[in-house]
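Supplementary Note 3. Input sequence used for the single-chain structure prediction.
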Amino acid sequence: MKAYMKTHRGLVREQNEDTICVADPLYVLADGMGGLSNGRAVSQALVRCFEEGFLRADPTFGSADLLLQLAIRANAQVNGMLQGQERSGSTLVAAVIRGGLLHFLCVGDSRVYLYRGGGLIQLSREHIFQEELAVRALNREIPGSRVRADRQARALTSYFGIGHIPALDRNDAGIKLISGDKILLASDGVFGTLTDQTLEALMAMEPEAAAQAMAERIAAADKRYQDNHTA
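The predicted structure, written as discrete structure tokens, is reproduced below.
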């Protein structure tokens, strides 16, 4: 199995708030919230907690249960770290690939994708206000046109640092991987700039080339408020 990562500070951040761990079979990406204080410190603490906890864990422990236990510990650690301080936070997506199975856990809007047979599938569900608007539209409380048009549609509704986390996304049984499958973990600086069609085309490349091409395409887009981006 091959793995490669690429991360960049972007244009509007004084520092890169993203932190990543690539340590087969564990992969973690945390996107510190640049609009809040100490986003980088929170993302670093999350990744460190996952990495250290995974290394100490019983290797026979199920991946889904292990990811959940690591998330519980990480949340407690972040809440303790932020106690009495200004509000801060980070998203997180973590994946374990072992025994031919993919397990993932997400909080926030960082994404995990499966590339298979030339198609790119988003596996994780984002915790953003747009999803709450969609439910309200379903119940005819608001018009459907407002779901994407609302100015706060992309606002996070769940993240580490919020205290009581209202939502997470995870898979319990595991996704059986087949030859040729590729997994992409990405912060919103990636998919917020590149379309799904572009990401799909780039994922046909080898991992190192794909990650490099994503960074080059993002730079070429010359987006005025380009955020940190990590793939």
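The two ends are 17 Å apart (CA to CA). The helical segments are 39-56, 63-82, 129-138, 146-149, 188-191, 196-202, 207-221.
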